[in-house]
Specification:
Length: 229
Amino acid sequence: MIRALLWKEWSEHRWRLAFGCVLLMAYMALGLKTRLVEDEAIFGSGLMLGAGLLPLLAVMGAVAEDRAEGTLARLLELPVRPWLVLLVKTLMGLAVCVGPLAGATAVALVMAGGREVSAAMMVKLCGNVGGVTALFFVWSLAFAVRQPSEARAALVAIAVAAAWWLTLMLIIGRPHGWVVYIHYVHPLGFAKLTWNGSQQVAIVIQVAMAGLLWWWAARRLAASAGRSA
């Protein structure tokens, strides 16, 4: 049954994965080939493009698409727990989010690794932005899990991104204690190349927050399954 769920999600999300890979890899290749701006600018802007676009595509196709098409009720009637259904959808969504970033980084490493930006720095930046992208998807999924349409799910994801940036803007320039908040608690702190304090602690905090949000989403999905029954 899990294999069937994985195949279903793959067949529905593979075009999103392919679109993301083609878009980011082509952007990276053209930018690094023409060299109209510095390599760091091209590489960073390509990753940030993916961080903003890919979670939006993934969350639109995670639960809202099935709900809009009327297939979610049938999925929740299968002899598997609702949280397993959500887990499969989450894993495929994370693949859509992270796969194109890895592909774009591979293109950058082949074309310009060590030219202006070291290969190690490229990998580190990809990992940091990939972490933010994964967090963005999980947060958006948690708040959009009961949205009735893909458009509503996309609006929720945009609202999550706006809230992240708004709180970050409000915090910048505050006393040092708020800087610690950015590094350890605020999701966008994941994108920083250098961290003040223990990076491992920050990762644990962010993963724990994302895990709690995912657990909340799984409970909400199970509750909706109970009502539909």
